[in-house]
Amino acid sequence: MKTLLYYFFKLVVKTGLFFYSKKITVVGSERIPKNEAIIFTANHPNGLIDPLLIATHLKRRTNFLVRAAVFNHPFMAKFFNLLGMMPIYRIRDGVQQLGKNEEIFNKCQLLLKSNKTLLIFPEGTHKKNRTVRPLSKGFTRIIFKTLDNFPDTQINIVPVGITYQNVSSYPSKSAIHFGTPILANNYYDKQNINKSVTNIKKLVSNQLEELSVHIKQDENYETTLLNLNNAQVDFTEVDKINLLLKRNEELTQKKRSVNYAFPLSLLIILNSLIPYFIWKILSRKIDEVEFVDTFRFGVNTVLFPFFYCIQSLVMYVFLGWKLALVYFFTSLLLILLYTKLSPTPPSK
Fold it and tell me: Number of C-alpha atoms within 13 angstroms, CB side, residue 176?
């Protein structure tokens, strides 16, 4: 039953992402091992949207570690557990909470021993900057503990680069690039743990810098990003953008595209006043730009269809089922057309 619910909600989330995203590009999924243990190591620019995007575009069922704060509400905790999410505690959650990580790490070992998959964000925190940040060693600890306890387990590390055209705006484009599997067993030396950690982190970091747009975090970062934004580049064309960065080419500024789909947005707002204003109220309480997409996606996926169902029910009572169905599917079609036809908002 739990498995059926997992795949049901996975379908719901994937459908929601289809309506929410202008385009989702997936590259390299054919590289993913089919029957062996895998730790997916991804960069982390965009809150809970990151694990949802990756998990819904994998054929294999995936478990993933996310920050414990999202488990504070009991109902949400049960829902996240159903989706395969596990809480990871940090010092900011309270020193007394750190002990709970040992239980989570043990669970991760059993998953890998059973040739399951695990998704981890080794940067430790989310941040929208277009830079691969230094990786923590937590994921190597899980790998090494698993190999100590279950030495016959073959553990593949698959780096995942995720890139957005604009982290905080709707609709946006995104790209998921799966890297070349790294067999962790080949880089684990019990006699030199520090070297093993350093080598694996370097291998993963090097791939992530190729799999996502990586601008060096130095004194030129803001200028480089501004030039790319002024040139209206498509950041989801990861290989092309990284090549431009390596060549340090001068870019031509371009004018922003006219949003000819804007009238559709007015129709959608008029047709969705209640969920639209609920979103506006909620958006004022979001203090991290990396969580804007997460909350907006949740509102779009839950409140808007629910509201259309209520209005369709009212129409059914007074005007019959045919007009009610036409109204419901027209409402969804308007959102889909706006999402797919609108120009991508400029990056910030």
Answer: 21
Kindly write down the DSSP assignment for every residue of 49-93, as one continuous string.
HHHHHHHHT-SS-EEEEEEGGGG-SHHHHHHHHHTTEEEE--GGG
Q: What is the pTM of this model?
A: 0.91
For 165, counting Cβ atoms within 10 Å of its Cβ (0-12 exposed, 13-18 middle, 19+ buried), the class is buried
**225-283 pLDDT, tens digit each:** 999 988 889 999 999 999 999 887 777 788 777 788 889 999 999 999 999 999 999 88
- Per the prediction, the chain carries an average pLDDT of 89
Q: Is the dihedral of CA 314, 337, 59, 242 positive or negative?
A: negative
Decide if 46 contacts 121 (C-beta within 8 A).
no
Taking 3-state DSSP, the helix, strand and coil percentages for the chain, each rounded to the nearest 5, stand at 55, 15, 30
The neighbouring-strand residues paired with 119 are: 40, 64
Q: Of 70, 283, 255, 41, which Cα lies nearest the Cα of 168?
A: 283
Pairing of strands 155-164, 172-178: antiparallel
Beta-strand ranges (E) seen in the chain are 21-27, 37-42, 62-67, 85-88, 117-120, 155-164, 172-178, 182-183
Q: Rounded distance, CA 308 to CA 304, Å?
A: 6
Please give the Cα distance from 233 to 227 (Å, whole number). 9
Packed helices 221-230 and 238-247: angle between N→C axes, nearest 10 degrees: 120
Instruction: Return phi, psi of residue 190, to 5°.
Output: -60, -25
Q: What confidence tens digit (pLDDT) does each residue in 185-204 have? A: 999 999 899 999 999 999 99
Domains of the chain: 2-211 (3.40.1130.10), 262-341 (no CATH)
Distance separating alpha carbons of residues 236 and 239, to the nearest angstrom = 9
DSSP secondary structure letter of residue 125 = S
